[in-house]
Amino acid sequence: MQPGKTMRTAFVTVLALVFAAWPWRLAPAHQEASDGGVATEQAELESKLDRFVDLAMNGAPAVRPQAADRLTRMGAAAAERLLAECGEGPADMAHLGTDLVEVLARFDEPRLRAKLWEAAADADFPWRPAAARSLAITPLEREREGFLDLTQDRLAAVRVAALSAVGTWEGDAGERPLTEALRDEDDRVRRAAAEQLYARGATWVLRYPLEELSRADHFFDIDTGRIARFQAARVLRGVLGDLDGYQPQLPPDDPTNLAAIATITERVRALIDGPARELPAVARVGEPVPAGTIGLELRSCRAGELFLQWGPGDVLYVGLGNPRRVSLADGHLDELAPIAEAAALQLGDARVFGEPGCDLECLRVTRADGTVETIYMRKGPEARPDLRPAALDGLMRALLGGLPPGEEALARRLRDALTAVGGPPDDSDGLSDD
Amino acid sequence: MKNTRALSLAGAVTLVAALNLSGGTALAVPGASDPLRADLTLDQVCALEEVTEVDIMTLTSIEWEPGADLPASITDLSGKLVLIRGYMHMSITEETSRFPFVSDACQCVGRLMPHHFIDVSLGEDTTEPKPGQFEILGRFNVGERTDEDGFVTSLYRIRGRVF
After folding, report:
1. How far is A388 from A397, CA to CA, in rounded Å?
2. Least crowded by CB within 10 Å, which of A65, A203, A269, A341?
């Protein structure tokens, strides 16, 4: 910049400042003080917004939801700030994190609500359960179709959220999707549906949590039955109060629990009016599942969850609790076992790949001596098509290729889930047909 | 684990060192008075002090909000030596001496409120991020801890070791 131009720029700037300050020079003293106070308040508000938005996004995990809650009490200013943080679309909005997304609808701001629907409709948005839960707090009449779609979502947590909105609809409009959800493959969805239906006066649905008091299922080292017992006990405690000494942390065949379940059963029977209805197979305590030889635990914040267990007798168990049984070709497990063991050996000591995040692919292989090798592949919302080590490719192809005719839907789902976490498991481009 | 289970509390089972008449595992450890010493087996710990096995879900599945009272079955555990099985929270990505300990392998879908985790401190020790289930043995402490903004940073704490 030339010296002359610099001088002219400085003069213009000073002149502008003088003119800008002039009206304030003329203002009465009390207005000056008042404006100064307003400016200070505004600065304080901005500072608080900065702090709580930062804490809700980057603070300690336990502080994030509390900071997000605090923002909801700061009203319109916080809503405007969060609207700005949302950016142009779901890809921008993802950086808010699950805790801020979870509270957006509580501002009662239509523009934030629109952002939430946009995010909920985007299969790549990593915090869709939080978006759905937020929307479901205050469902609007015109959003019925959207919530009905969400009851069919591939993520169980989204389906649970949608049901709480559906539960507010009167008559058959609400009752039909809730009743359908009692057949859901995921126990959290069935439990949520049962709670909603009970709140609408359907007493027979208490049989769902009652049955779960007797669950003792496992998925390898995960005590899935115990988790279900705790949740079912919570539901029944809300209805019955005291549970006659039932202790969900103890196995259902513990004498204390056997006696408690008998008493609770009588109490539930006394509450049920109307005809008895059968529980679907998926909601019943099934035959024990023998210890698996190979297990795949897939949890993806985009593709949903899938639990598969290849077990003795060439049976594939699909799901948790009372899993669906799929018969495989005779001798298939004998073919798989050496491939799995070789893959585990080829990995050496490495058992953990990637960084912790909302996507998990966990492979379990039971060795001949009974010990279980567990291999974890983990990642956050970003795509990692090379996350799964090449040593596991052959095994994944064998697992997919061994699914029998008639299980195309399961094959597609497995391929999608594997692709979403560890990357495409075979030579396909990882895209399913639908 | 060579121990017997007795005295069932709500969600807690006291582990008592098994009588080892066959002379197998030596329970007495000369010079060891700190039950949290890293080289002790569970039997040896139990020989020094009563260990209470706590189901993490009895802690994390309660209904709670800041300022609310906790059940006596939980507050009674404060100060006790406890053994708890659970998972490291997925927010831990580097070697650490402190981490949230949770009941579920995948914390993909919910908000982590203070009653949903145990704040584990290993003192001088550290651990790599651990993906699967594991046990923590340590001294249990209960009660709200708040930061300068009034946020509750923890409700349950354990100072101990990865077992």
Report:
1. 13
2. A269
